[in-house]
């Protein structure tokens, strides 16, 4: 956990699938740059996939890494960029899946208030909440042949 004038800070980084379900979760200190911490998280992205990320992840190194894997990085470019890379605003709209995941994550009080002070325990809480979010998608409240499924 990082320290700032406000106290302990942490950033949660998440890689979600097309349904908004978490695939990779990571914690970094609050003062750490987002783009530098993303490199090891993105190893699961492969050929034919599209990475959608916000401006904090905009870097030539990230784009070259994705290109080497056969994936495309649809990252919103920084406004001060001289050589603006290809970017699709239409596809970028689907980045809201990760924002929706973070919204669901914040419904867990221990995570929203950052109750746990140790990074390993906090990451465990985040993963537990992510597991609950995964399980919600497989819950069924319908009746099948008279049996509640």
Automatic annotation (TrEMBL):
GO terms for molecular function: DNA binding; transposase activity. InterPro entries: Transposase_11 (IPR002559). Residues 5-131 form the Transposase IS4-like domain. It comes from the Bacteria. One of its GO terms (biological process) is DNA transposition. PANTHER family: BLR1914 PROTEIN (PTHR30007:SF1), PHP DOMAIN PROTEIN (PTHR30007). This is Transposase IS4-like domain-containing protein. It comes from Rhodoplanes serenus.
């Amino acid at each position: 956990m990082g320290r700032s004038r406000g106290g302990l800070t942490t950033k949660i980084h998440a890689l979600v699938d097309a349904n908004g379900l978490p695939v990779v979760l990571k914690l970094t200190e609050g003062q750490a740059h987002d783009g530098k911490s993303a490199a090891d998280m993105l190893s699961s992205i492969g050929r034919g996939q599209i990475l959608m990320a916000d401006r904090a992840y905009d870097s030539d190194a990230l784009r070259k890494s994705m290109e080497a894997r056969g994936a495309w990085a649809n990252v919103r470019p920084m406004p001060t960029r001289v050589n603006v890379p290809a970017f699709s605003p239409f596809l970028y709209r689907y980045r809201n899946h990760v924002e929706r995941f973070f919204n669901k994550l914040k419904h867990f009080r221990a995570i929203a208030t950052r109750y746990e002070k140790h990074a390993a325990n906090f990451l465990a809480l985040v993963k537990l909440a992510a597991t609950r979010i995964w399980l919600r998608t497989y819950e069924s409240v319908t009746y099948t042949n008279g049996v509640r499924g």
